[in-house]
Design brief:
There is one protein chain. The protein is an alpha/beta fold. The protein folds into two domains: about 5-10 and about 260-380, Aspartate Aminotransferase, domain 1, CATH 3.90.1150; about 15-255, Type I PLP-dependent aspartate aminotransferase-like (Major domain) (Aspartate Aminotransferase, domain 2, 3-Layer(aba) Sandwich), CATH 3.40.640.10. It contains 13 helices and 14 strands. The two termini are about 30 Å apart.
């Protein structure tokens, strides 16, 4: 009997406690009972976001949160800086353009991270006209992490706000929203927070709220002013995703029980195991200098069909990893290690990868990847 393993950069596996909570009978959302649940969720999200700012819950995917981060703080013809280092950097540009916001795009070669000095230079060129800087914590299309702290140090003394796409990174890698001067942080439910898709989250600083007062972009469902008004009484302006919010509290309980620092260390260990395995069987990491502990992107070796590799692992053996996107389609595969994933999920995934590579004619020492990963786990002390 085939057992399925989910090792993709979202959705991620669900803990049993989360699954159980999703099976509970539905309750009405305009009640004191749900308001209590929502209050717990609001406070829990502040812990995960590492912020004292309010965090708003949207009944949407993470992309809804990204759109909210554009329409609530900007007006048509406003100037912004967008860092484009992959598919999700591209998404920032596409949303801005949809609302007539002028994006000055910093194109970064796929597989690399932005140099904060490049952002600093563009801000100086803008001479105070730049309203926002859009960056991505973890570019999941390439497996690259951005140095958000360094970017925050650049932006903090300007009139621009720093807006961070943390959809795939939050809860898996460190993001100190307040300490790193992040004004708006967006995330989603189906990645590091170990929930099904369907919730978007957005935190807002006082600096960002000042900018929101003059925003002229059209908005209704994604109005954060409406969300803030409802938030004051632990409510939502529109019908919330009741079951997902209940499950969110269960996920946050698990995160708090373990502690963020330990969770970040564990994700680093899993990532190191995957990277060590890839190197041991002669594969090349796509982002060797700025890798993320959320997902590892690996170049497909010559002579191997990358799309068939991913398909065989998933359909024949039940191990789902992700292929490359856009220009990297068929050229890389992406092995995720975030959320409710353990040591032996990683070992199983590597073992399957080795088997399929061998079946596709790639020459290497069978078992070398598994051994390298086991060594990382053995020496981690976790």
């Amino acid at each position: 009997m085939k057992k399925n393993y989910l090792l993709t950069p979202g959705p991620t596996p669900l803990p049993p406690e989360v699954c159980e909570s999703l099976s509970r009978p539905i309750i009405h959302h305009r009640t004191p009972q749900f308001q209590s649940i929502l209050k717990e969720a609001h406070e829990g999200l502040k812990y995960v976001f590492q912020t004292s700012n309010d965090v708003y819950i949207l009944a949407s995917s993470g992309t809804g949160g990204l759109e909210s981060a554009v329409v609530n703080f900007l007006s048509p013809q406003d100037s912004v800086i967008v860092v484009d280092a992959g598919k999700f950097g591209e998404r920032w540009t596409e949303i801005c353009e949809a609302y007539g916001v002028k994006a000055d795009v910093i194109k970064v070669k796929w597989g690399h991270a932005v140099d904060p000095k490049d952002i600093e230079a563009r801000l100086k060129e803008g001479k105070g006209s730049v309203k926002a800087v859009f960056v991505t914590l973890c570019e999941t299309s390439t497996g690259v992490a951005t140095d958000i702290k360094a970017v925050g140090d650049v932006v903090k003394n300007t009139d621009a706000i720093l807006v961070v796409d943390a959809v795939s990174g939050l809860g898996a890698i460190d993001l100190k929203s307040d300490a790193w001067n992040c004004d708006v942080v967006v995330s989603g439910s189906q990645k590091g927070l170990m929930l099904p898709p369907g919730l978007g989250f957005i935190s807002v600083s006082s600096k960002a709220w000042k900018l929101a007062e003059n925003s002229k972009c059209p908005k209704y469902y994604f109005s954060l002013k409406a969300a803030r008004k409802a938030y004051a009484s632990n409510d939502t302006p529109w019908t919330p995703a009741i079951g997902l919010v209940i499950a969110l509290n269960e996920a946050i309980k698990l995160i708090k029980a373990q502690g963020l620092e330990k969770i970040f260390a564990w994700h680093h260990t899993m990532a190191e195991a995957v990277r060590a395995a890839a190197r041991a069987i002669g594969l090349e990491l796509f982002a060797p200098d700025a890798y993320s502990d959320v997902v590892t992107a690996v170049r497909v070796p010559p002579g191997v069909d990358g799309e068939k590799l991913v398909k065989a692992m998933r359909d024949t053996y039940g191990v789902t990893i992700a292929g490359g996107q856009s220009e990297m389609k068929g050229k890389i595969f992406r092995f995720a290690h975030m959320g409710y994933i353990g040591e032996f999920d990683i070992i199983t995934g590597i073992s399957c990868l080795e088997k399929v590579l061998a079946q596709m004619g790639y020459k290497f020492q069978m078992g070398a990847g598994v051994a390298a990963a086991q060594k990382v786990f053995l020496n981690s002390g976790i």
